[in-house]
Design brief:
alpha/beta
């Protein structure tokens, strides 16, 4: 273990509540620069939203910004330019966790599934995700989702693990889906369950353990977790720069200490998310909408 890694792991028992904002920014920067397992991609620039076509230039620019800090990138769709994300990532030496976005539009679903299979068979996919929170949104029936998972597993000729992304508890409630997946891909958000920052890491650890039990020995990846830096409170969960930094530091330290694969949500702030999440939706990024690091010591 390197001196830097030992220093990061030494943060396990550090009481962040006693740190000043300046001290938190210094620790945050140290943890970020040591590198994280993965980031969720945020490719949409200000004024864009899902449905708009992404350009290779904007994808390349944003991936180059996060490349020094991560081994993996997670993408959410295989259409409208999103299919370029794993291609550019592979070129830059970043591993790829690629998702097909499924909803209640049968034609779009067909294109997404075909796109995921094509990308995987062309060698651009390290992990394949068939849908994201489809059960949570109730966009498809369980049988429809299982059918798509099986279609992808049968269509991919490469050695690529196939799973489905949803809230951790959906895998407890739907054993047929857990059984169909090669790997359990669980979203774990203490914030969205109103958890106070002080208990958020313990809360996420419990979420992870519940997903492990539901998977019956299968590998579990935390596919999304994060904390907003601004916006309205949700019960005991308070968005703030300080809480966002504390959550990031604690999550990444635990990730390294226990060898837990975490895809942090998110890389960049995206204003379009306000429509679905309220005012906190704009502030999940490590970088802001202008691609500047948010928690800089100089700010």
């Amino acid at each position: 273990m390197s001196v830097r890694e030992e220093k990061i792991l030494s943060l396990t028992n550090v009481d962040l509540s006693k740190k000043s904002t300046k001290e938190l920014k210094a620790i945050f920067k140290e943890v970020l620069f040591d590198g994280v397992h993965g980031f969720c991609s945020s490719p949409y620039e200000e004024g864009q939203q899902p449905g708009d076509t992404l350009t290779e230039d904007q994808i390349r620019r944003r991936l180059k910004i996060i490349k020094p800090y991560t081994k993996w990138i997670r993408s959410f769709s295989c259409t409208e330019g999103n299919e370029l994300i794993p291609k550019v990532a592979r070129e830059l030496g970043i591993k790829t966790f690629v998702g097909a976005w499924l909803g209640n539009d049968a034609e779009i679903n067909k294109k997404e599934i075909a796109g995921l299979i094509k990308l995987a068979n062309e060698g651009y996919v390290d992990i394949a995700a068939v849908g994201n929170e489809v059960m949570y949104r109730q966009d498809l029936s369980e049988q429809e989702l299982l059918s798509f998972i099986n279609e992808v597993k049968e269509g991919i000729t490469e050695d690529v693990p196939v799973g489905y992304v949803d809230a951790y508890y959906e895998f407890e409630d739907r054993p047929a889906i857990s059984d169909a997946c090669d790997i359990i891909l669980a979203n774990c958000y203490p914030f969205w369950e109103g958890c106070h920052q002080d208990y958020s890491l313990l809360y996420m650890k419990d979420m992870y353990q519940r997903a492990l039990r539901a998977g019956k020995g299968k590998k579990v990846i935390i596919t999304e977790t994060g904390w907003p830096s601004e916006g309205s409170n949700l019960a005991g969960a308070v968005p703030s720069e300080e809480n966002a930094m504390k959550y990031f530091i604690n999550a990444q330290t635990w990730s390294k200490e226990e060898d837990i694969d975490i895809f942090y949500f998110s890389s960049f702030d995206e204003s379009w998310k306000v429509d679905s999440e309220g005012d906190v939706g704009s502030y999940w990024g490590i970088w802001d909408k202008d691609e500047q690091l948010k928690f800089d010591e100089l700010k």
